[in-house]
């Protein structure tokens, strides 16, 4: 069994993330999708709760035909000590050998903790990045095509784009 973890904030989960998951599952038997900053929600950088992120990712996996036997979803709150974060993560997830990331801090911390490092390619990063998607939700530009369709319908069902506009004060109601 070759298992890996894929940490991210997934605010929201987009098509770049989905491509990374598929890339990871071609190389690993199982993937733990680690929902980081799980304590965060209702802010400009982190509008969605951990529970909402779990739901959007599960729907995206189902839409893509990825079996629940191949992945876990584990939310983990941040801690104040980077030096022990990799060990903190190990306490909450099934045992793993590999880490998938492009985030330099995440790569550094797991390299120091002795994990195997897998760096995926950048999948259309200029389009597929959550900061841009959150910006489009605020300005009203088309963001729906940048996320799996199950993610856009879920976000609309919870009025997530409206929440973001209210948080930044651009919603005029
Ligand atoms: N389009 C992409 N292609 C490949 N890797 C990606 C892509 N987008 C994000 N990643 C990687 O996935 C991991 C989790 O990403 P994260 O949840 O921070 O998304 P993000 O789009 O970078 O979000 P934000 O803009 O809010 O920081 C990180 O290692 C990040 O580098
Ligand atoms: N000290 C810590 O708690 C610590 C350290 C490094 C990364 N993380 C988390 O890992 C996740 C990494 O994901 P991103 O690549 O989306 O930033 C984030 O949620 C980040 O906060 C936490």
CATH topology: Rossmann fold
User: How would you write the strand order of the largest sheet?
Assistant: 3-2-1-4-5
DSSP summary: helix tally: 7
Bound molecules: adenosine-5'-triphosphate, beta-nicotinamide ribose monophosphate
Radius of gyration: 16 Å
Q: Can I get a quick summary?
A:
With 173 residues, the protein is α/β, with parallel strands linked by helices. It contains seven helices and five strands. It is 42% helix and 13% strand.
Key phrases:
single chain; 173 residues; alpha/beta; Rossmann fold; five-stranded parallel beta sheet; 5 strands; 42% helix; binds adenosine-5'-triphosphate; binds beta-nicotinamide ribose monophosphate; cytoplasm; nicotinamide-nucleotide adenylyltransferase activity; ATP binding; transferase
Give a description of the structure.
- GO terms for molecular function: ATP binding; nicotinamide-nucleotide adenylyltransferase activity.
- By secondary structure, the protein is α/β, with parallel strands linked by helices.
- The chain is built from seven helices and five strands; from the N terminus they run βαβαβαβαβααα.
- The protein has helices spanning 15-27, 50-64, 85-92, 104-112, 130-139, 149-157, 160-168; strands at residues 3-8, 30-35, 71-75, 98-100, 116-118.
- Helix 1 (15-27) links the parallel strand 1 (3-8) and strand 2 (30-35).
- The N and C termini lie far apart (53 Å).
- The chain binds adenosine-5'-triphosphate and beta-nicotinamide ribose monophosphate.
- Residues 8-11, 16-17, 20, 101-103, 120, 122-125, 128-131 line the site of adenosine-5'-triphosphate.
